TrEMBL record:
Keywords for this protein: Cytoplasm, Hydrolase, Nucleotide metabolism
Species assigned in the record: Terrilactibacillus laevilacticus
Chief localization: cytoplasm
Enzyme active site: D70
Sequence similarity: Belongs to the Maf family. YhdE subfamily.
InterPro entries tied to this protein: ITPase-like_fam (IPR029001), Maf-like (IPR003697)
Site positions (Important for substrate specificity): R13, T71, Q153
Cofactor(s) needed by this chain: a divalent metal cation
CDD domains cross-referenced by the UniProt entry: Maf
Pfam (any one): Maf
The protein, known as: dTTP/UTP pyrophosphatase
GO molecular-function terms, A-Z: hydrolase activity
Catalyses which reaction(s): dTTP + H2O = dTMP + diphosphate + H(+); UTP + H2O = UMP + diphosphate + H(+)
Length: 187
């Protein structure tokens, strides 16, 4: 691999997933304003945020291949980001309880000669959750750095009745598709 590969994310889950590709990479955290554009659909927002993250990092290293990603949970056309506090986490989990929601991960792979963006969508069905289950989960602290207030790879897996789509996209990076795209770019 002749080009440097950079992941524009501080997410431990994205680092773990990108490591599965076998490509060597560096992490450079993009500092962007993640405020959602109210004129955009959730899909447009998640794609735009991934593109902004990649663009911000590429400005300092234009010859590298940059991966920007963003994940969002949507239900009833409402976007659920990372909860700001315990009350917001409870509200999000109550909203998801007993329903199907969509997890969207936007990805942007950017270099001097590549600018590829896509959104991977996965439908996740939750069991009906009791208040005790929600409170116990929130007390673990796992809710606060995850869109929709849960992580499918941890104790949040206990809420999941079924998924239709890419499990790893729900974790934050559709790693199989990213691997295939990188393989065509870097080899």
């Amino acid at each position: 691999m002749s080009q440097k590969l950079i992941l524009a994310s501080n997410s431990p889950r994205r680092r773990e997933l990108l490591a599965k590709t076998g490509f060597s990479y560096q992490v450079v955290v993009s500092e962007i304003d993640e405020t959602l554009n109210e004129n955009f659909t959730p899909e447009e927002n998640v794609k735009s945020l991934a593109e902004q993250k990649a663009e911000a990092v590429s400005m300092n290293d234009p010859d590298a291949v940059i991966i920007g990603a963003d994940t969002m949970v949507c239900i009833d056309n409402i976007s659920l980001g990372k909860p700001k506090n315990e009350q917001e986490a409870k509200q999000m989990l109550k909203r998801l309880s007993g329903h199907v929601h969509t997890v969207m991960t936007g990805v942007c792979i950017k270099s001097s000669d590549v600018n590829l963006s896509f959104v991977e969508k996965t439908d996740v069905a939750f069991y009906d959750l009791t208040d005790d289950e929600i409170n116990d989960y929130i007390s673990t602290g796992d809710s606060f750095d995850k869109a929709g207030a849960y992580g499918i790879q941890g104790q949040g897996a206990l809420f999941v009745k079924s998924i239709n789509g890419d499990f790893f996209s729900v974790m934050g990076l559709p790693v199989a598709r990213v691997y295939r795209e990188l393989k065509s770019i870097l080899n």
